[in-house]
UniProtKB/TrEMBL annotation:
Species: Meripilus lineatus
Biased composition range(s): Polar residues: 75-93
Keywords, in A-Z order: Aminotransferase, Pyridoxal phosphate, Transferase
Protein name per UniProt: Aminotransferase class I/classII large domain-containing protein
Example GO biological process: alpha-amino acid metabolic process
Length: 493
């Protein structure tokens, strides 16, 4: 990648990161790679002749140019769907022979697999000067970023409703959250600016120096940040010196083009520019995953960051999980580089076709949602522009037992309505009816510092997250139940 970034951002690294010493055994292990014929008596590396595996073959969907819609063909043609095969054998001629793939390697991943994700990153984001580190998926990737940057007592910023399986992760390291307002367009840059410019370090401690955000098809709200908002947020990151952790597992599932003149199913459709693509300083840690575009059980992803952060991530990895398993690394390497593999062009055809498939599911789900649920006027939703979630708003003010100013005169801090209780009741009724939804309360940023009491978040819990990731044949029955439960709930005597 060309030109190097000029800003030294190492002051963002946590004490834990600074104190962590490189794994001394890995340092010696690296020396065995110094010369081609180095004989190692140093490491207890099991010899490849003792691995009980001789050959691994992957049979994957064909993405040939003759197949117009590879995902649909794969999904609907069953065992007769055209396929491609990649093979890795002990000693080659594979792109990544088992002999080297199954051996220990360094925390960044096997060089060939690292090259595979670097090429993907360059193709979609062209960052100025960044380095990739393989992970076990975005949960692992983001949790590692938190540890890299978070000091006990630090405040991190996140969308006020966020992916709780990750916002929970740094709490035990003493990180506190500050929640940033969101609207239909996602995180509101003006609220971010308000929080940062009003921050009083004497009273509140160090100003938040990390923003965790999901820019496409945000989980749970389904929002996607516009290019304009991304630019504003990046400018704020430069002005207030914070790091952006861009957790972007739904990047490829974008349904609306940022350019109004291009249909999103057209070959000319360009994915929305990521934070990484605008990162001249090296202050973005982009976290990518194969979970939503291949399979979640692959447990494989990668972080793209500046070199200093990459180096610290490798040290953390060398002392914790170590590099990801060989099979996933072989898969992505063969997929991109093997003769007869997908190559980047084929990967691009797959993800665009996958996007078309999810778009079809979204449209079907949204139509059914309007017919079965929203038509009653008790609920509504915005059209998600990316991802796999619909953020359903329940119009609780229409409920006969909806109460305002529960806490007396309305000036008391905290909730001013009984939204939380009614939503808990509605959730139970959905379960009784036979459908599970995700309540908004699950996504509240945990123990977030209150930045304003004017519009308490407890009064804005009147949402459920619904997914359209599943098959169509379960969507209509589920939405019928939801519509019926809502009607009964709102028209109770
Ligand atoms: N603990 C001990 C005592 C070891 O000898 C080794 C391997 N050298 C490990 C842990 C690392 O094991 P793994 O490859 O399963 O991470
Ligand atoms: N981050 C977000 C925003 C997600 O929605 C998910 C999956 O639901 C993940 C991370 C977890 O991804 P992975 O399977 O790569 O760990």
């Amino acid at each position: 990648m060309p030109s190097s970034t000029s800003v030294d951002l190492t002051h963002h690294l946590s004490t834990e990161t600074r104190l962590r010493k490189p794994n001394p055994m890995k340092a010696i292990w690296r020396l065995t790679r110094r010369k081609p014929k180095m004989i190692s008596l140093a490491n207890g590396d099991p010899h490849f002749s003792l691995y009980p595996i001789r050959r691994v073959e992957f049979e994957v969907a064909s993405v040939g140019e003759d197949i117009e819609n590879p995902v649909q063909t794969w999904r609907t043609s069953g065992p007769s769907a055209p396929s491609q095969r990649f093979v890795s054998t002990t000693d080659g001629p594979s792109s990544l022979p088992l002999k080297s793939a199954l051996q220990y390697s360094a925390g960044a991943g096997l060089p060939d697999a690292q090259r595979a994700v670097t090429e993907l990153t360059n193709h979609y984001h062209s960052p100025p000067d960044h380095h990739t580190t393989l992970t076990l998926g975005n949960s692992d990737g983001v949790a590692k970023c938190f540890r890299l940057l978070g000091e006990p007592g630090d405040h991190f910023l996140a969308d006020e409703f966020s992916f709780s399986s990750l916002t929970n992760a740094p709490l035990s390291h003493g990180i506190k959250w500050v929640s940033v307002k969101i609207d239909q367009g996602g995180l509101v840059p003006e609220d971010l600016e308000r929080i940062l410019s009003n921050w009083n370090e004497e009273e509140q401690g160090r100003r938040p120096h990390v923003l965790y955000t999901v820019p496409c098809g945000q989980n749970p709200t389904g929002c996607t940040l516009s290019v304009e908002r991304r630019k504003k947020i990046y400018a704020l990151a430069q002005r207030f010196d914070f790091i952006i952790i861009e957790d972007d597992p739904y990047y490829y599932l974008q349904y609306e083009s940022p350019d109004d003149n291009v249909d999103c199913t057209s070959k000319d459709f360009k994915f929305i520019p990521s934070f990484l693509s605008m990162d001249v300083d090296g202050r973005v840690m982009r976290v990518d995953s194969f979970s939503k575009i291949m399979a979640p059980g692959m447990r494989l992803g990668w972080i793209t960051s500046n070199f200093a952060f990459h180096d610290a991530l490798v040290t953390l990895t060398d002392s914790s999980t170590h590099h990801p398993h060989a099979f996933g690394q072989i898969f992505i390497t063969e997929m991109l580089f093997a003769e007869g593999g997908w190559s980047i062009a084929g990967f691009d055809r797959w993800v665009r076709s996958l996007r078309d498939e999810y778009k079809r599911r979204r449209d079907f789900f949204v139509d059914s949602f309007y017919n079965e649920v929203a038509r009653s006027g008790y609920a509504s939703a915005e059209l998600p522009e990316a991802g796999m979630f619909l953020w359903m708003k329940v119009h609780l003010q229409k409920h006969p037992r909806f109460r305002t100013y529960k806490n007396g005169d309305g000036n008391a801090p905290g909730p001013k309505t009984n939204t939380k209780e009614l939503m808990e009741e509605l959730f139970e009724r959905c379960l009784d009816g036979g459908v599970v939804v995700m309540p908004a309360s699950v996504f509240l940023v945990p123990e977030a510092a209150k930045t304003t009491d004017e519009d308490p978040i407890e009064d804005r819990l009147n949402f459920f997250r619904l997914t359209f990731a599943g098959p169509e044949d379960t969507m209509v029955p589920a939405l019928e139940i939801l519509g019926q439960v809502l009607k009964e709930f709102f028209t109770e005597k």
